[in-house]
Amino acid sequence: MRVAIVGGGVAGLAAAFELEKARRAGAGVEYALLEASPRLGGVISSRMDDGTVLEHGPDSFLTEKPAAIALCRELGLGDSLIGSDDSNRKTFILVRDRLVALPDGLMFLVPTQLMPTVLTPLFNPVTKLRMGLEWFHRARTGQEDESVANFVRRHYGQAVVDRLADPLLSGIYGGDAEHLSVQSVLPAMVRLEMEYGSLTRGMLAARRKQREAARKAQPSAVKRTIFTTLRGGLQQLIDALIAELEPQSLHMNAAVQSLEVDALGWRVRFAARATERFDAVILATPAWVAARLVRGVHGPLSDELASIPYSSSITANFVLDEATLPTLPPGFGFLVPTLERRSMLACTFVHRKFQGRTAPGRAVLRCFAGGMRGEQMLAESDAEIARVLREELRQILGITSEPLVAEVRRWPRSMAQYSVGHAARVRRIREQANTLRNLHLAGNAYDGIGISDCIRLGQSAARALAQIQS
Q1: Segments of the chain assigned to CATH 1.10.3110.10
Q2: Which stretches of 43-97 are assigned E, i.e. beta strand?
């Protein structure tokens, strides 16, 4: 079996690695990984600058999702895995140009401790009363999808949408809480509402179960951190994957122009090459790219893929002399709600989030911009983007010193938006793709935007094909 893997991000590389393992084990399978750009890795990109790790895309993956950690260990990177310093895991929200800490006991959007919620200046007394009365919220039996904003508004009111849901989801998805699907983005909270009615009561019950499970666990069990990364940067994962693959199977600057299917399989035409035949295709691309490629093969599938919206992202790393900085708030960083009317979506104090990845005497502030509300920033020069973000850092944190390093990266149309109805849309996409022989879809557009999700989907697609071959 000959497989074309279209897209050289982490999903495509994970798929290629699975097929490479199958080939080494004797399966009659070969693959060609086709990447339109001159480099592999997609949005994962990092480099070392004089002892300091600079991440240009994502900086970590969720520890609770196992695929990324398992793959790192399989590639021999287990000793390089490090967890976040959760003793510093406090997050601030910008409120009328000052930073306010999220109250203790807040589990994503759900308050689980009374006094921190009562005392926080994040909300006014009316909102706090509304949050208290949420305890009596009745269970909802309906299954109809709705926006995260509407879901949160029903439970806690508009102020919680503005001050919590909006900045949290903007920081994670680069999206808008008014359009993101609660079933796809917060499925655990939907289940809590169905079982308990009140999210607060449901979350407290879940915490009791977690504590009971922890008491029954082995005493030697190590407490897991929220995030995990690699000591030398996530580029280590990409480099390790590439090193395991056959060099002649990797094709950069090879943008696929079209796909065709017939009784003998797939015909793939890509840049600077004649059309080549494959038995199977894994589309590990953004959905909007996949939509273009399958347009002539399956119109309805193309339409469904094209209907998945995307936002763009900008990251800016500023390396500073720590001695020149004012005292930073104690935590990982801060989020910026839309109503603050800033270009910045969030800022991470990288040197606090992960220990041992920043040179002594240095501080790294990583700013995020773009998203659904800041697409116009992508048209600005790197110098202008850096100037705008540095001015906002000056206004918010009082930072006036010149950075030792300033790096800006753009990631256009890179973040899939799980809009209302997303789960049903993905079901239709899967059903339609299954009507095409040996076509598989992988990437962040379907059922998970994180690195582990992309790895899992890439591996799943490759294993399905390898199993057919064996």
Answers
A1: 104-216
A2: 46-49, 52-55, 61-62, 81-83, 91-95
- In whole angstroms, how far apart are CA 203 and each of 27, 105, 151, 442? 47, 11, 16, 32
Question: pLDDT at position 143, please?
Answer: 75
User: pTM (2 decimals)?
Assistant: 0.93
User: What is the number of other CB atoms lying within 10 angstroms of the CB of residue 137?
Assistant: 18
Cβ(117)–Cβ(128) below 8 Å: yes
Q: Supply the pLDDT for residue 447.
A: 92
The percentage of the chain sitting over the pLDDT mark of 70, rounded to a whole number, equals 97
Question: What are the structure tokens assigned to 31, written together?
Answer: 């693959």
Backbone torsions φ then ψ of 171, nearest 5 degrees: -70, -35
The phi, psi pair for 189, rounded to 5°, reads -70, -35
Which part of the chain is CATH 3.50.50.60?
A: 2-42+237-308+418-469
Query: Which CATH number is associated with domain 2-42+237-308+418-469?
Result: 3.50.50.60
Taking the C-alpha atoms of residue 436 and residue 427, their distance in angstroms, rounded to an integer, is: 15
Question: CA dist 76 to 19, 119, 239, 243, 355, Å?
Answer: 18, 48, 12, 12, 21
Where does residue 150 rank: exposed (0-12), middle (13-18), buried (19+ CB within 10 A)? middle
Residues 6+ apart with CB under 8 A from 210: none
Non-local CB neighbours of 87 within 8 Å, separated by 6+ positions = none
Q: State residue 375's pLDDT score.
A: 87
Q: Which residues pair with 433 in a beta bridge?
A: none
Q: What is the CATH number of domain 310-416?
A: 3.90.660.20
Strand, coil or helix: what is 54?
strand
Q: Convert the pLDDT of each residue in 158-189 to its tens digit.
A: 999 999 999 999 888 888 999 999 999 999 99
* Per-residue pLDDT at 222: 47
Specify the residue for token string 């990177």.
77
> What residue has token string 């790192």?
72
Q: What φ, ψ does residue 151 adopt, rounded to 5°?
A: -60, -50
Give the chain's end-to-end CA distance (angstroms, integer).
10
- Residue 24 CB burial class (10 angstroms; 0-12, 13-18, ≥19): exposed
The token duo for 41 is: 């890795």
Pairing type for strands 61-62 and 227-230 reads antiparallel
Could you please state the CATH topology (level 3) that the domain comprising 104-216 is classified under. Answer: protoporphyrinogen ix oxidase, domain 3 (1.10.3110)
Residue limits of CATH 3.90.660.20 in the chain: 310-416
Q: What is the pLDDT of residue 359?
A: 96
